[in-house]
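Thread: quick sanity check before group meeting

JM: Hey all, I'm pulling together slides for Thursday and realized we never actually wrote out the predicted structure for the chain we discussed last week. Dropping the sequence here so it's in one place. If anyone has concerns about the input, flag it before I start.
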Amino acid sequence: MLSKRLIPCLDVRDGRLTKGVKFKENLDIGDPVETAAFYYEEGADEIVFYDITASSDRRDIMIDTVRNVAEKIFIPFSVGGGIKSVGEMRSVLLAGAEKISVNSAAVRNPQVISEGAEAFGNQCIVLGMDVRRVSLNSSIPSGFEVVVDGGRTPMGIDALEWALRAERLGAGEICLNSIDADGTREGYDLELNRLIASRVRIPVIASGGAGKPEDLFDVLTKGMADAALIASIAHFGTYTIRELKAYLYERGIQVRMHW
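JM (edit): ok, ran it. Output follows.
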């Protein structure tokens, strides 16, 4: 059995670590490079870095910040935000990332997934999905809609259909973020995670809503997720990664203990 992963998420705006609730009211909470180094020492399995305004601002990712983070950590490092071509993927990988997360650009040009997978391997390509609940309709039969541009632009695309298509195109992993749960600390959207994880054959990282250790346990079991992204629960000092892993281990969840 593969170990479940705990992955701190660094949302970065203007070179600073930030955190909001449901993609709004973002607070400046520190330096992303120092924070990444701290989480590495704490036993994080991976680090995810998102330049959260790169897509909406229609600009390139902050490559210097990516390089500075990569110099401080020695665990898998996934980077996303405004990446829309194989050339940009290559630049980020050369700056030290192991994985590329494509989100808005992939929705607008799905072939970027297959082009990236062909150039660098499926294991390098992570599909980032920002998803919100909507009323059931013929266009969105699952009741979950894909939204792009950092939660600003609803696309009228069904989340399950998009996940399955992205898998066929070559995505090696899905990072599934619930906009409704994001930053609330009220628990992951178990229905959403179970919907996607039960239908795709690639790993699913649950994102959005962790507030207590029980939330991680629930999404890794009931939600069928392969990994859990964490932000507020760790950024604000509520729990350490060691505490969260110890809680999961004591309840029979296989996790990597780095100490």
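AS: nice. The mean pLDDT is 92. Residues 194 and 217 are 14 Å apart (CA to CA).
JM: adding both to the slides.
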